């Protein structure tokens, strides 16, 4: 089973390098952040990875919301209303804010992620700033409706597509590995926000387990192997390093 893999931008924000790295960064320079949803498409299956955030949430948090996840995916020919498989990498607000746009989907999540956000840590102020309570309640309702598929660790969820718990940023963050004609593609999500996190061995500023962040870097490299590629979760360079989908320059690229 061979897949085409896409990254589609739905939001952005201005930021500086000092905003992104635990312990600071050698130089303070502009370092904007892009927000993506991803899709892996084969002749038989379509998997969407993450669902973005809502416009009002973006406004409140100082992000520029450009389009919904559904609108972003529509530009590459993916109809969110018919997608049957969605992998949620973790529960931060910018990854699970568009669940209602996928009425036909089953959602793959790590058991550790659900346990963390439904446990005692949610009451801590710094922890809860990273989620929207309404999003979390939607996950609970989806589970009640039988639309959540739990994973514990690593699992093939579709032929040629697997998810892997690389905890550190959150306890149940999962990355998605997709087999393609040009080798494996590992969608890192927030296990590596930028190429610089992985390439320079620098942790992002937000995490629950610093040692886990570095173990996740090792895990990303192992999953990609010598012939694969790791795609970070928020780096604007993604839109420069891969060919644009025709007519969608600056907003959508085909990774493989």
The arrangement of helices and strands along the chain is: EEEHEHEEHHHEEEEEHHEHE
Q: What is the name of the CATH topology?
A: Metallo-beta-lactamase, Chain A
The CA-CA distance between the termini, in Å, is: 13 Å
Q: How large is the radius of gyration?
A: 17 Å
Name the average pLDDT.
Answer: 97
CATH architecture: 4-Layer Sandwich
User: For this structure, what is the CATH homologous superfamily?
Assistant: Ribonuclease Z/Hydroxyacylglutathione hydrolase-like
Shape verdict: globular
Q: Residue share in helices?
A: 10-25%
- Please, how many helices? 8
Number of domains: 1
Sheet/helix structural class: alpha/beta
Which regions have little confidence, pLDDT < 50, spanning 5+ residues?
none
DSSP E strands, number:
13
Beta-strand residue fraction: 25-35%
- Top CATH class: Alpha Beta
Largest sheet: 8 strands, mixed
Explain the layout of strands and helices:
Blueprint: E1 4-13, E2 33-41, E3 46-49, H1 55-61, E4 64-65, H2 69-74, E5 85-87, E6 106-110, H3 111-117, H4 125-128, H5 133-144, E7 148-151, E8 154-158, E9 161-165, E10 174-178, E11 185-189, H6 195-199, H7 210-224, E12 229-232, H8 238-241, E13 252-254
Parallel strand pairs: 3-5, 5-6, 6-7, 11-12
Antiparallel strand pairs: 1-2, 1-4, 1-13, 2-3, 8-9, 9-10, 10-11
Polypeptide structure, described:
Helices cover 23% and strands 25% of the residues. The protein is of the alpha/beta class. It has one domain (4-254): Metallo-beta-lactamase, Chain A (4-Layer Sandwich). Strands 1, 2, 3, 4, 5, 6, 7 and 13 form an 8-stranded mixed sheet that branches. A 5-stranded mixed sheet has the order 8-9-10-11-12, covered by helices on one side. The longest helix has 15 residues, at 210-224. The chain is globular and about 45 Å long. The two termini are 13 Å apart.
């Amino acid at each position: 089973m061979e897949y085409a893999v896409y990254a589609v931008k739905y939001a952005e924000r201005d930021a500086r390098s000092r905003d992104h790295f635990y312990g600071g960064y050698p130089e303070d320079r502009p370092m904007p952040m892009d927000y993506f949803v991803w899709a892996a498409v084969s002749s038989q299956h379509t998997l969407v990875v993450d669902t973005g955030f809502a416009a009002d949430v973006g406004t409140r948090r100082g992000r520029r919301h450009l389009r919904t996840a559904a609108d972003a995916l529509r530009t590459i020919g993916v109809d969110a209303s018919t997608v049957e498989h969605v992998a949620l990498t973790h529960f931060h607000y910018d990854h699970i804010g568009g669940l209602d746009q996928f009425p036909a989907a089953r959602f793959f999540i790590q058991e550790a992620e659900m346990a963390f956000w439904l446990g005692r840590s949610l009451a801590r102020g710094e922890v809860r700033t990273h989620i929207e309570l309404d999003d979390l309640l939607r996950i609970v309702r989806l589970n009640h409706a039988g639309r959540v598929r739990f994973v514990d660790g690593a699992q093939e969820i579709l032929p040629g597509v697997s998810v892997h718990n690389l905890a550190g940023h959150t306890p149940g963050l999962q990355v998605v590995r997709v087999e393609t004609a040009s080798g494996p593609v590992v969608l890192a999500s927030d296990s590596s926000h930028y190429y610089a996190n992985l390439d320079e061995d620098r942790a992002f500023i937000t995490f629950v387990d610093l040692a886990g962040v570095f173990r996740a870097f090792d895990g990303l490299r192992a999953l990609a192997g010598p012939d694969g590629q790791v795609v970070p979760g928020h780096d604007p360079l993604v839109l420069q390093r891969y060919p644009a989908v025709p007519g969608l320059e600056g907003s959508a690229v085909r990774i493989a």
